[in-house]
């Protein structure tokens, strides 16, 4: 190749890449081809079987124009060491790792906020100063991860003054963050910990098509949401489809009032975001390589006006934000996948997903997880085909299934929900074991939130989020006796500490109930 060609070809390639969205988009609109749609978004066509979020190819190789704003938006406002100072060794317990192993008896060693060891028997000789917990008759599991919660943004006690769940002023509110509504004194948070929950995905409500960014919260009591963010967790976005958005805006005589109107609104929003992303990347390229004008001065191009909603959607299309999509019906999920395919992004999980069993092969092929209930159904039309075997059937197909709460009350008994779903699946003939059911509570929801490299299984090097149960966690009678987060004892059923919320002060101050009166010889109370 000549030197002249070596010089010209990169420039021609850059021009082609810059013009590609504008050239491909009209073809996509006419032909509706998923591969061309992905091309128009500046990314590779979707690949069947892919299970991880992937970033599309950038329009340029210039520095990321959104990096600085994202970094500022997540800058910590409080620094505090949260990891344990004293090592803890739980011995003689039944240890269920959620990674396929079950040790009877087994041990878990926590040190420096991490799991230092897990295995069969009593474990290694503990270092000096280690707190040894006798786990005879107890069960040990990873901490439960609830991938769909509204605690903190729709807190208890439920009052209008504290209801910050839905910003029902526009169907597209991608620029807002649940973090900015989160109230850390919600009494439900401590109750969830008492149920073995150590991490929650806090999401905006489902009244809007795009409700805004969620936040992954590590349930250590701290002053505010920013300090409670799970370290290193990716950004997540709450989207919704089906009955809720069309009901909310249809009642206001606004669009969307139908499912087809909802899809149109989503496509229009992502089309605008695609242009917004291209404008910013073009500006970043000009800033990196300024153009000299005829008089020799440098052309200082003005950056585009910042739009928080379009910025969020641009990051979704780049694969930097995980999409958590509220969808009940199979047809709604398929329509959502069409939108995702057109604009080249992945759906991380469908939430609620009561009809996932109908299209489980499609969801598995697209690498989409589900986060659902055990047996909620029939409370509205799109919930009428819910079945208790949903989790089991999704698992049988090779998909990722997770149990979620969507309720401050259900969040306290997620272990029982998994037990019911396990029983329903077995009764239907699905071959499942307790490791499958435990992963519905820990490893799979951790993947949904993008934190499975840190929590979800009891493995050396992961965060020491550990629950000690009174008995088999899938028993109706099981209670979380001790809950450790980053190796710190956050909940101890036998030793209640100071409550997280002022609203629990009265409960803690109540004297114990008197014993019941003795029975008469006939067995009746006098």
Strand content: 15-25%
Tell me the span between the first and last alpha carbons: 105 Å
Mean pLDDT: 86
- Residues in helix, %: 25-40%
Please state the overall shape, judged from the principal axes of the Cα atoms. globular
Question: What is the level-2 CATH architecture name of the largest domain?
Answer: Alpha-Beta Barrel
What is the CA-based Rg, rounded? 26 Å
Quick one: CATH superfamily of the largest domain? Metal-dependent hydrolases
Q: How many DSSP-defined strands?
A: 16
**CATH class (first level) name of the largest domain:** Alpha Beta
Low-confidence stretches: 1-62
CATH-derived topology of the largest domain: TIM Barrel
Q: Count the DSSP helices.
A: 15
Q: What structural class do you assign from the helix and strand content?
A: alpha/beta
What is the subunit organization of this protein? Answer: single chain
The count of domains is 2
Largest sheet, in brief, is: 8 strands, mixed
Structure notes:
- It is a single chain.
- With 526 residues, this protein is an alpha/beta fold.
- It has two domains: 115 residues, Roll (Urease, subunit C, domain 1); 257 residues, Alpha-Beta Barrel (TIM Barrel), CATH 3.20.20.
- It is 31% helix and 18% strand.
- Strands 1, 2, 3, 4, 5, 14, 15 and 16 form an eight-stranded mixed beta sheet that branches.
- Helix 1 packs across helix 2, helix 2 crosses helix 9 and helix 7 runs parallel beside helix 9.
- The N and C termini lie far apart (105 Å).
